[in-house]
Amino acid sequence: MKKLLFLSFALTIISLGALAQIVNFPSVNTADSHVTVIKKVETGKQYTVVTFDHYATHDSSWVVLNKEIYLQTDAGNKHYNFIKAEGVAVAPETRHTLTKAGDKVSFKVYFEKIPAGTKSIDIIEHAGKRDDGISFFNFYGVDLTHSNASAQEVKITEVVLAPPPATIQIDGDSVPVDTSGLSGLMSSFGPMYASMVKSMMDAQLSFYKQPGKITELAKLNKQYYDALVKEGFTKEEALKIITTESLLPKAAATSGK
């Protein structure tokens, strides 16, 4: 009787092991998201469930899962599609926001069950990489043959999103424009303008230093004043006009003040 009970217990354990395949912290050949860890891959009676740990790269960072995510095994190109997710927003839902850099969110993704004996899988949310710094949950060569004691250390580095390149429209097409030369030109314009103003002021001072030039300027301003009074301006108005609107450019007017 005891032998029968032991045999029944052993068969139960074996059958449960055959029904459930669990791999903890599987090794991954390549991953697009370097701040996400696969914590566990579990294949049960109905689903294959992948548990992820995702870490925030900066304050108020966000994470969202696309329903297009699927599994692909080493046995072929068949897709094992997304069923549901727990603990994370699924597009087009509101994004799951993490408050501070280094914060972690753990979530589970349920897929159609993969065949027993599968040695490796690819987890693909969106094939290919983007140039704007946004990464997808793409993991290639996830080893299902053995577990690891823990995940590799995750290095949190802040992702800086670069602005899109400047473009112009030509015949309906967007053509990128190299603005590096323009920025260099603008940075050199300041010193060039200062040098030009100095040259103009030096030239004016040299002109006024010539014999008789100051006397000519005084006579011209007197004639200007008399003409304004003759035309009906008061003396105060005429004086204000010749001091603010001189017939000749002032040296101080070129200083940029």
Automatic annotation (TrEMBL):
<feature type="signal peptide">
    <location>
        <begin position="1"/>
        <end position="20"/>
    </location>
</feature>
<protein>
    <submittedName>
        <fullName>Uncharacterized protein</fullName>
    </submittedName>
</protein>
<keyword id="KW-0732">Signal</keyword>
